[in-house]
Amino acid sequence: MYSFDIERPTSVADAVKALATDEAQPLAGGQTLIPTLKQxxxxxxxxxxxxxxxxxxxxxxxxxxxLSIGGGTTHATVAAKATAFPGLASxxxxxxxxxxxxxxxIGGSLANNDPSACYPAAALASGxxxxxxxxxxxxxxxxxxxxxxxxxxxxIITEVRFPVPEKSAYMKFEQPASRFALVGVFVAKFAxxxxxxxxxxxxxxxxxxxxxxxxxxxxxxxxxxxxxxSGDGMISDLHGTGEYRAHLVAVMTKRAxxxxx
Length: 261
Known about the structure:
Elements: E1 5-7, H1 12-19, E2 24-27, H2 33-38, E3 46-49, E4 59-61, E5 67-70, H3 75-81, H4 86-93, H5 98-103, H6 106-112, H7 119-126, E6 129-132, E7 136-138, H8 139-142, E8 157-162, E9 167-174, E10 181-190, E11 193-199, E12 207-208, H9 210-218, H10 242-260
Parallel strand pairs: 1-3, 2-3
Antiparallel strand pairs: 4-5, 5-8, 6-7, 6-8, 9-10, 10-11, 11-12
Helix pairs in contact: 3-4
């Protein structure tokens, strides 16, 4: 590790001020950033730790029925407290290992937008709203490609607001070493239709599988899941070809629908 300064603000306002420093970078749980620093893939002169900002932590139900989760809330807390949204709580409970779940945060995961991360699928399938220190961003507008989001430089995710579906489930085929999703599918059934989001598969990052949404909105049954999408544009690496991942998209969607009941 190389030398850098660290700031530990206790409010969002102070964090924003600290991030205005040249070459400053936010540090949430650090599950991605710390290994990145060790590999010299990033070299900020200042790290701004968000772990001491209590106003960014916690889970609660809003007056409009949505579930509000602070951006600094750990995966373990989401798993334990998001009981109003069982599909999301189950997803959080199966991220990484206990060390990751007790340090990693939902805001950090969504800000990083790893193409194999779990939370992006939940946010996109739920039609969540990502709240920052300056604005609110619909999930459909937030995710813009692999490791790419609508966040501006220095913008902080302070809260995520999830509409709670009637039924939901997340199923992932794990890469056994990392426990990231080789392919993960989140299915959310609302009164006005079904949303299906896929992570781990596409070269463009998380995406909605619209063909499955249309089919499942008419018949919410695993038998209604369409044939696998094309393998074109799917990630192809040592863990699996694009065609293999496309096949898994259909398989995981069927399992998610069955689990959601």
